Here is the input.
Amino acid sequence: MNKLASKCFFRKEYLTIDGHKHGMFIEGTSPDHPVMLYLHGGPGYPQYPMIQSAGLNWSDYVTVCYWDQRAAGMSYNSKTQGTLTIERFVQDALVVTAFLKREYKKEKIYLFGHSWGTLIGSILASTYPEHFIAYIGAGQMGRHLHSNADTVEFLLETAIERGDQKAEEEIQKVQIDEHFYKDNQYRKVFSRYLIKYGGGMKRADYSQMKSLLELFSCRRYTWREKLNIPKGIFTSYEAFAEQLAKLDVAELAHEFKIPVYVVQGKYDYQTSYKEAKRFFDSITAPYKKMYTFENSAHSPFLEEQETFMEIFKDEILLMQK
Here is the structure.
């Protein structure tokens, strides 16, 4: 363990927004460091356990807030969370941002979105740039429908290459249109083959079982909060599936007044590389840069940590000083 990591501080905080309690973990090594709000994916899937398990050491350089979004983990309560909408999540994130700025006496903070979190993060950074130093998107969303078409194409090509005739036959039955999220065949194929073929959360050495082990071994959550996560994933998917199938993040957030960084795995087929590149090419920003991680899928900041941390420390953080 390095010297910085040995001094790490940890806080578990709760914040009430519109009568609903939101939970967050905050980690860092110095209150003088820049602050970064991490927007997790899903929707409804907090990623603190995965990041903790991977040993990512960015909290040596920034104070990181892992906020569980409305209906996720620490922030799940079916009686008080109300109707789940994208705008509500954006406004929730704005309140959390104000809390962090006030708590750590910062004029602006960094914003990091992963997967679904890039939808909320892109809108937030584009609409309210006065609060943020820069926006960083990993597993950046674009057009969700087109991304899923890319996924099916990847799965089919991989099945053919591997001579997996059973998988090929199953994948060919999938039809991608604006109602794909209702298709049980698609859900089955996505669940069965995306991780197996290396296009899921990580390129290699990851599974749904490993994800569950990370979650249930994470001591920061109470047992109730752990059990709330599967409930939140289901609730959030039901609330947002139709909207996700039809939206284009580049239309919802096309103009940025702060620097934008996109961190994308070449083998990402949860939010496809092609759609992330289209998002990047479509937006305007005073400065923007896209980093391609050649050996990663959906989580390049965890899969190729050494490369990511060099970029994070020596380019993203250093450029804003």
